Amino acid sequence: MKATVLGGGFAGLSAALHLALEGYEVVLLERDSLLGGKAQGWQGVPTGPTVLTLPELVRTLYQKANFPMPPLHPVSPLTHYYFADGREFAPTLEINPTLEQLGPAEQMRYVDLLEEAKQLYHGAVDTFLLAPPPTLLNLAQYGLKHGLKAHPFSSLEKLVQSGKYLTPFFLRFATYMGANPYHAPAVLHNIAHVELGLGVWHLQGGFARLVADLRAMLERLGVEIRLNTEVLALEQTNGKISGVKTNTGLERADLYISALDRAFTLELLGRAAPTYPLGVSGFAVLLKLEGDHGLAHKIQFPQDYALEWANISSGTLPRDPTLYLHTDGNTGFLMVNSPPVPAPDKAGYAALLLERLKAWQNLPILEHKILAPQDYARFGARGALYGRAPHGLLGTLRHPWQFAGVGNLWQVGGTVHPGGGVPLSLLSGWNGAGRAMGLGYERLGL
Ligand SMILES: Cc1cc2nc3c(=O)[nH]c(=O)nc-3n(C[C@H](O)[C@H](O)[C@H](O)COP(=O)(O)OP(=O)(O)OC[C@H]3O[C@@H](n4cnc5c(N)ncnc54)[C@H](O)[C@@H]3O)c2cc1C
Question: Per-residue pLDDT averaged across 11-36, rounded?
């Protein structure tokens, strides 16, 4: 049996791995000269993901491929937060050192909200994360079992009210799925458990190493990786894909897995563009630094977090945004959330961010490169990092793996079930391909 995989991001790599391990003859088509998609990297500097959660999933993929895994280290503090008035907060997986940094009322709220996040995560996981796309019956069963405990009619903002410092701290986790925290439903509070309860990890060599290792696994299994090969159209005959038209010719297979942004696949099918609202994009400045700056994740909150998100809602880049800084040795990644629209003045906005960075962390920058929403638009519709905005209760439901009327095409990746982020994209690729092969669902160590 032959399979063609479209796109060489994490979802495409994971789908191709599963197909190859099951004995399929696999061809992977990637438009760019590098694999990894959003995690492609620029001369050793990360271009997208930096925070690794749910590491058991990655470990399981290495085991499945019988491939040596690089060392994996827990990151502590998980993230170091800086507030506009100079206060700092550096939570760890250990609760006591975390609580010691908080006042008595904050301590109670922190413990309560951590427990709430854990309950929401455990309630949602079997239906929305570690299972095939839910059916109406699954949703009804979830509603009956968890009902009001999942706060279906409440907003995240209402649920996590916990004072001047902890409110923005808890709100921010919703951005990991592309949400504007002020439009997110309460159930997205479950994401806080993934980081604060399960931890942040670092794979030696970062996500670039994971891309390189997945490529080596595929090559060892005989997968044909075709770089610089852009998919131009999906040809259809009698409700099936009959071929993939690329810039180098026509590719035919028994089954097809698209690991592109779902909106791109719709376009290749000649269908109407989706009308759903898109989630956030990012504006990043990639940094080459002099000297070793260790491994760290840092956040600097603005004076007014609500104003930042009001700006993003209205389609403008905030002048006073939350800064995220990741350093790993002599590289740095500075990022802010952005609306999914082109930045009108890339250089000017990057200069503003670098000024802010200088006042916060004085790093010796040797060289930098800017990635704006118009650059991320190569990977996702209008540069949205996770596809559809998870706003409102139904907005958190991710798209299923198939399109009506196309029998042999499966859609996987960060813009569909179970959702964005590296671990879930890997899971989507693995299980979407598994479903295409008629196999059962696998939780991949989770
Ligand atoms: C700035 C930023 C920060 C992030 N931070 C984190 C984080 O800290 N932790 C985390 O877990 N996740 C993070 N993410 C999200 C994570 O990177 C994504 O969810 C994940 O990488 C998505 O993988 P994917 O395979 O679905 O899509 P992509 O990585 O977008 O892969 C799609 C691939 O398809 C290719 N392609 C597109 N069109 C065509 C075509 N016509 N023909 C052939 N190939 C094509 C693209 O070149 C690309 O290689 C971040 C993302 C960004 C951008």
Answer: 98
